[in-house]
Amino acid sequence: xxxxxxxxxxxxxxxxxxxxxxxxxxxxxxxxxxxxxxxxxxxxxxxxxxxxxxxxxxxxxxxxxxxxxxxxxxxxxxxxxxxxxxxxxxxxxxxxxxxxxxxxxxxxxxxxxxxxxxxxxxxxxxxxxxxxxxxxxxxxxxxxxxxxxxxxxxxxxxxxxxxx
Length: 164
Known about the structure:
By secondary structure, the chain is mostly helical. The chain has a domain at 59-164. 74% of the residues lie in helices and 0% in strands. The protein is built from seven helices and no strands. The chain has helices at residues 2-7, 17-33, 48-78, 83-94, 104-134, 139-151, 153-163. Helix 3 (48-78) packs across helix 7 (153-163), helix 4 (83-94) crosses helix 5 (104-134) and helix 6 packs across helix 7 (153-163).
């Protein structure tokens, strides 16, 4: 959804963005790999080293995500659509109650783009897992930290020193 918000020109809220990317990447990875759901972790169980590893991995995942977004934007423009038009067509195709004035040619272009986006998305998830593991965390541990960051202002405060 982060990508679609960018395409539609709506402002992006940066607070908590890394955590959201982490959760999106990991949820998609879990659906693909079907590992057991990560157990929750207490704030005390998250070390500064874990936070540093998480921050480094998240930063690299953001760079990978930005690259993927550029690829997707290029695909959309290459097909002669705008980002907003592509999103409108895709949303209408996924929601039968939503009306669209898209031509058959536009629908075909959007379908072709969507197929390529799935490939890019799959590559993004694979790269994200590699980055997480290269930074010394398991996917499960990364997810635990992401969930803990969402619910703990104390942990968020500790995390800030690794992202500034």
